[in-house]
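Researcher: Batch entry, complex prediction.
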Amino acid sequence: MKTPAALPWILWMASASCSAQTLVIGLYDYSDLSAKETAHLTETADLVFAHSGIRVVWRHCRGALAVTSGITCEGEMQVNEIVMRLQPGGPRGSHDGSMGHTFVTAEGGYYASVFVPSVRAQTAGFRIAFDLLMGYVVAHEVGHCLLGPGHSYAGLMRGTWDRKDASEMSRISLHLTKQEARKAVARLTLAESAAQR
Ligand SMILES: [Zn+2]
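Model: Structure tokens for the complex:
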């Protein structure tokens, strides 16, 4: 049954679901990925975060797409911006095959690295495309920037992925949990409102 009171509620719901938070990622590729690989990995990460109500804006600061984008990466970072470096080597002093690293406190962080050779090595074990796994590893490290150092038992923020996770990746159905998504959106909202003050 329709009541007059239902309409404002519906409008409120519509406006709440449209107000996606924006996250800016400054991408510095030191690993010489092709333009196609870069485009695919960013598209993958876009889809993963779109599911959580987060819109990603990429600033191609270094690498194949930086040349053509004409974007300048100088100047101050925005409050909702993080730096993502794609490294041609592994983590320094570590041989655990770790695919990425983020400098984080309990609140999160702003600087993340992905170790491209480790991702490439893992691709065969998971039997998925390199640029797909790259997109997920980038998204996982971005997740640490938004959520802090912790890992979860399911989804994008698991500490170690297995074949089952990889098959979810190939369907783009591995995401943040609902709780993590809420926390990530809240963090971006807070940063934005602090910046406007
Ligand atoms: Zn992690």
